[in-house]
């Protein structure tokens, strides 16, 4: 089976349409679970429109905020109020206005020793295990209902960079990344592929012409982190017209 056969690519017109399509998928995944819902958010700039949309009345009124928990797939060692803080962006765009504080689960980079991404990773791993109420991920009971993902110009996803040993981690749920390959060049913490995979749906959001070059390489099957990220359920790539490689439709 090729990499492309394992994922579904959905093309949309532009970044605004992409945010709306992603918001509908968020609602659909929430509606499928009548209990406690877990959503793992992504960082970077790509999800900003989606996050802002979720705070609008149209979407806000359709989300049962009390039973939805919000996690983050990776974090950068920058202050919590720095615009480059991944959870900080989500908080400012929608979480702080809409979600109960107890349902927001940031990676503790602001409180942990800045020199020790492994310590922050361990703390977050403990938090995830306690939320999941088990130490072993069971394919039949995914940790997350939905995992949002982005892709960087080098093919990284979350803070899993090409060639990094973190990609081959099979025991830890969360790891420290001493130095990123791309800006901001700060230590990071990232969920591992095994943890990100434990979801009913993994949803990549990719928009804009600067992403077309890396998508061309990824859809050709190159062995890059974003190609190794797969859900045990469905893996969907929402891509706008500017980012979609020419031979892809
Ligand atoms: O560094 C990161 O980059 C990726 C991609 O970000 P984008 O700005 O190109 O959307 C992101 O998915 C990840 O969470 C972030 O830490």
UniProtKB/TrEMBL annotation:
Pathway: Carbohydrate degradation; pentose phosphate pathway; D-ribulose 5-phosphate from D-glucose 6-phosphate (oxidative stage): step 2/3. Gene3D superfamilies: 3.40.50.1360. It comes from the Bacteria. Keywords: Hydrolase. It is an enzyme of class 3 (hydrolase). Its EC number is 3.1.1.31. The keyword Transferase does not apply. InterPro entries: 6-phosphogluconolactonase_DevB, 6PGL, Glc/Gal-6P_isomerase, NagB/RpiA_transferase-like. Coiled coil: none annotated. SUPFAM superfamilies: NagB/RpiA/CoA transferase-like (SSF100950). It catalyses: 6-phospho-D-glucono-1,5-lactone + H2O = 6-phospho-D-gluconate + H(+). Residues 14-237 form the Glucosamine/galactosamine-6-phosphate isomerase domain. CDD domains: 6PGL. The keyword Cell membrane does not apply. GO terms for biological process: carbohydrate metabolic process; pentose-phosphate shunt. It holds the Pfam family Glucosamine_iso. PANTHER family: 6-PHOSPHOGLUCONOLACTONASE (PTHR11054:SF0). NCBIfam families: pgl. Belongs to the glucosamine/galactosamine-6-phosphate isomerase family. 6-phosphogluconolactonase subfamily. Hydrolysis of 6-phosphogluconolactone to 6-phosphogluconate. This is 6-phosphogluconolactonase. The lineage of its organism: Bacteria, Pseudomonadati, Pseudomonadota, Alphaproteobacteria, Hyphomicrobiales.
């Amino acid at each position: 089976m090729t990499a492309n056969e394992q994922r579904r690519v959905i093309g949309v017109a532009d970044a605004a349409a992409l945010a709306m399509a992603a918001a509908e998928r968020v609602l659909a995944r929430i509606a499928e679970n009548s209990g406690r819902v877990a959503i793992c958010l992504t960082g970077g700039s790509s999800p900003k429109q989606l996050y802002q949309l979720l705070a609008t009345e149209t979407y806000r009124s359709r989300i049962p905020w009390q039973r939805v928990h919000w996690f983050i797939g990776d974090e950068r060692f920058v202050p919590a109020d720095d615009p480059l803080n991944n959870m900080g962006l989500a908080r400012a765009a929608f979480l702080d206005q809409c979600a109960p504080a107890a349902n927001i689960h940031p990676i503790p980079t602001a409180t942990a020793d800045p020199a020790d991404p492994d310590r922050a990773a361990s703390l977050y791993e403990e938090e995830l295990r306690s939320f999941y109420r088990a130490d072993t991920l069971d394919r039949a009971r995914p940790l997350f209902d939905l995992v949002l993902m982005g892709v960087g110009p080098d093919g990284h996803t979350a803070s899993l960079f090409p060639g990094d040993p973190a990609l081959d981690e099979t025991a830890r749920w969360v790891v420290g990344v001493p130095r990123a390959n791309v800006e901001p060049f700060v230590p990071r913490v990232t969920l591992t592929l095994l943890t990100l995979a434990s979801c009913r749906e993994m949803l990549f959001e990719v928009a804009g012409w600067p992403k077309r070059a890396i998508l061309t390489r990824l859809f050709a099957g190159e062995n890059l982190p974003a190609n190794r990220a797969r859900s045990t359920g469905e893996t969907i790539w929402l891509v706008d017209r500017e980012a979609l490689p020419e031979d892809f439709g």
